[in-house]
UniProtKB/TrEMBL annotation:
<keyword id="KW-1133">Transmembrane helix</keyword>
<protein>
    <submittedName>
        <fullName>Uncharacterized protein</fullName>
    </submittedName>
</protein>
<keyword id="KW-0732">Signal</keyword>
<feature type="transmembrane region" description="Helical">
    <location>
        <begin position="33"/>
        <end position="52"/>
    </location>
</feature>
<keyword id="KW-0812">Transmembrane</keyword>
<feature type="signal peptide">
    <location>
        <begin position="1"/>
        <end position="17"/>
    </location>
</feature>
<keyword id="KW-0472">Membrane</keyword>
Length: 207
């Protein structure tokens, strides 16, 4: 169900609650009051919801430098976490898990930028973003190459991915965010270093 369909369905349901006739006497008044309140709630908060869904609270650059905890552990420069090479990722969308998919990532230890490329259920894509060795965070923008993969899903669009290192699971964890003309949403995303060395085709080579 598309985002617009969900919104229209919610409004229709609440409007019908206002106009419905309660066969049980006093029950009808309660439904009407709920409907009026529901429509009022939608009119106030729906614009805020539409503005925020599929969009992170902070840009990638601000996210990677914002630390939630002020202690010595988060301030330690930890270069071994950010190793160039083959990585694998998984993401959750449409009520199911996708992946793992392989990505070639290159970490620039001077500019603290990360680039890469890969292929998933949607199509081929490139990655570019930032990372911090002090907060152990990554913020990248995934750009799909139009004309590859699934033509129904691949719009040549961008996906924002913001991750933080989980030392207990030995992987990066966070969320992906998408805003297109057809879909808005977000979901869990995991990234971990691959133990399997693969020879990838030219489409996967570092950018």
């Amino acid at each position: 169900m598309s985002f617009l369909t969900q919104v229209l369905f919610s409004i229709s349901f609440l409007v019908s609650a206002i106009e419905c006739q309660g066969g049980g006497g006093g029950g009808g008044g309660g439904s009407g009051a709920f409907g009026v309140f529901g429509v009022f709630f939608l009119l106030i908060f729906l614009p805020i919801y539409c503005c925020c869904i599929g969009r992170p609270r902070r840009s990638n650059a601000k996210y990677v430098h914002a630390s939630k905890v002020e202690n010595n552990e988060t301030k330690v420069i930890d270069l071994h976490v950010f190793q160039s090479g083959l990585w694998e990722c998984e993401y959750f969308q449409y009520n199911k898990q996708h992946g793992p998919h392989y990505i070639n990532l290159s970490f620039d230890n001077v500019r603290l930028e990360v680039t890469g490329s890969g292929f998933d259920d949607i199509g081929m894509y490139t990655l570019h973003g930032f990372y911090s060795t002090q907060t152990r965070r990554i913020g990248v923008t995934k750009t799909y190459q139009l004309g590859t993969g699934d033509p129904r899903q691949n719009l040549g669009h961008n996906v924002i991915i913001q991750l933080e290192w989980n030392r207990f699971a030995n992987q990066f964890e966070g969320k992906w965010y998408v805003r297109t003309r057809k879909y808005r949403g977000s979901g869990p995303y995991k990234l971990r270093s691959s133990q399997q060395q693969l020879t990838l085709p030219p489409a996967y080579e570092k950018v």
